[in-house]
Amino acid sequence: MFSYRNLSSRTRTIILLSLLGLLIILIVTDPKGDFFNFLRGFLNGMLIVMFLGEVGLYFMSRKK
To answer: Which residue windows are transmembrane per the record (predicted)?
Structure first.
């Protein structure tokens, strides 16, 4: 089963930066339509959750 935690830090960074780049493109170009508004909101939420997950992984690995 897929686990985000088992990915290397380099792979997790590439995923986060790719999603952030896509979100920046959507914000800068400002396309109109419900789908793009949904996509922008979805990426915002996903990036927030992934960032908080990274912070959690950092603190969990630091205690060991």
So the answer is: 12-29, 41-60
**C-alpha angle 30-43-41 in degrees, rounded to nearest 5:** 65
Digits of tens for pLDDT over the chain (64 positions)? Answer: 777 778 888 888 898 899 999 999 988 998 899 999 999 999 999 999 988 888 888 888 876 5
Cβ(5)–Cβ(57) below 8 Å: yes
Query: Could you tell me if 13 and 58 are in contact, meaning their C-beta atoms sit under 8 angstroms apart?
Result: no
Residue 49 in tokens: 């959750």
**Cβ atoms within 10 Å of 47's Cβ, excluding its own:** 15
Q: How far apart are CA 11 and CA 34, in angstroms?
A: 31
